[in-house]
Amino acid sequence: MKKLIRILLPAALMLAGVVSAEPAWVADRFEITLRSGPSTGNAIQLMVSSGTRLEVLERDAESGYSRVRTQGGTEGWVLSRYLMDEPGARERLSSLTSQLTSANVRGTSLDSQLRAIRSEYDTARRRIAALERDKAAVEEELAGIRRTAANVLGINEQNKSLMERLAAAQIRADTLEQENRELASQTTRYWFMAGALVLLVGVILGIWLPRVRWQRRSRYDRF
Predict the structure, then answer these.
(1) I need a labelling partner for 136 at 20 to 30 A (CA). Which of 130, 151, 197, 206 fits?
(2) Fold adopted by 2-87
(3) What pTM does this model have?
């Protein structure tokens, strides 16, 4: 019995996931990331274009992500704010254009329906125009970020060069300090040797001069 429960339980959970899945469409953001987990720290599995139909398997309100499944069977996490409950403006515009063309070809007398379609068509076109402006603003902001990043990289290279020069100067300073210590030590030795030499000369003179005086005095005493 337990073995049967273990077999049937995963199948029931999978069936519940399929039953609870709801359709959703990617918002007009041109492309969004499908990640392996509900955070920007997870790996990007693929890029999903706007208008793509997805199945929402679960929503995580705390992280702001939803677990979805693509029509190809790939599962992952996307930001919930990029999902819509109906197709985006571009897809609706295409559909409305087809309906409008079909209505014109058929010569339908349903003027009210035609006016509604045209109204939705105009609304969709205005929405697309607004999205194009948003895209241009985002691209301009991205260009500014890239310029800033390039400046940061240049500054980092300059800092690296300055650090290398500082390290070389520090090495040179240490070398000069060592040479100064060696010169100071050598000078001390020279002074010590000079002092010893002077002392030695003084001792020799101290011994030699009295003997010279004694010899002179002895000569005088002979006369």
Answers:
(1) 151
(2) SH3 type barrels. (2.30.30)
(3) 0.35
